[in-house]
């Protein structure tokens, strides 16, 4: 059911500087994916801080085996749809596969996602040299950037599947180095996915920018899940780091509200949602 934003309690818009203030004050950031206006309105009504239009839509909406087939046009389309359902919630949109293959391509993608899509921030995966150059170029043009490290889905073939990253000491050290590098390049936010709980805590302490975890343990500054995973409607096996918040609650609105409450209280993620 579509939720009219006019019925939601008035709140101040979430801003990029506001996210950093939340980290400094120890207030956990609540992020969820959304792919259309109706789901966006549900996030807005529940007071979710950040809506992410993830290229995960390639898997959970389009039915692909990875995020790689998603195009920039599709990302702009879904971002614009989500933007229509939001008012105070901050909107982040993914740069799809190979949109960062050159600085000019990253700038074009960022311009379209903000200008046409209505996003307030773009997300980019990895910390290779060309990615750092793209972050620097976007940041220099006042485009806020969310970095994404750890298990980066666009690297699924390089990783040999969706595998937990940073378990060996040298690999963990590399993730910390990458986090510092994307921060130095100008990233304002970091999504850290699929790493051991201890590494999630280490990265969060190492950087000044907020760290939002997904399968990175409870010590991050916030949490993000794919909305279909947390509603228990994704086909197949649900990821270990997720939880079915719809079970026993009876409505999408109640499930999202419960997720937000558990993230803010620290009840989610619990130890069983993390990795060693």
From TrEMBL:
User: How many cofactors are bound and how?
Assistant: Binds 1 Mg(2+) ion per subunit.
Which key words tag this protein in UniProt? Cytoplasm, Magnesium, Metal-binding, Methyltransferase, Pantothenate biosynthesis, Transferase
One GO MF term on file is: 3-methyl-2-oxobutanoate hydroxymethyltransferase activity
- CDD domains, per this entry? KPHMT-like
| Needed co-factor(s) | Mg(2+)
Q: Where is the active site?
A: 193 (proton acceptor)
Gene3D superfamilies referenced in this protein's UniProt entry, alphabetically: Phosphoenolpyruvate-binding domains
Q: GO biological process annotations for this chain's record?
A: methylation; pantothenate biosynthetic process
A GO cellular component annotated for this chain's UniProt record is: cytoplasm
User: What Enzyme Commission number does this protein have?
Assistant: 2.1.2.11
Localisation per UniProt entry: Cytoplasm
Q: In which pathway does it act?
A: Cofactor biosynthesis; (R)-pantothenate biosynthesis; (R)-pantoate from 3-methyl-2-oxobutanoate: step 1/2
Entry binding sites for Mg(2+): 55, 94, 125
Q: What is its main location?
A: cytoplasm
Q: Which family does it belong to?
A: Belongs to the PanB family.
Q: Which HAMAP family match?
A: PanB
Supply the PANTHER family for this chain: 3-METHYL-2-OXOBUTANOATE HYDROXYMETHYLTRANSFERASE
Assembly and binders: Homodecamer; pentamer of dimers.
Protein name (record): 3-methyl-2-oxobutanoate hydroxymethyltransferase
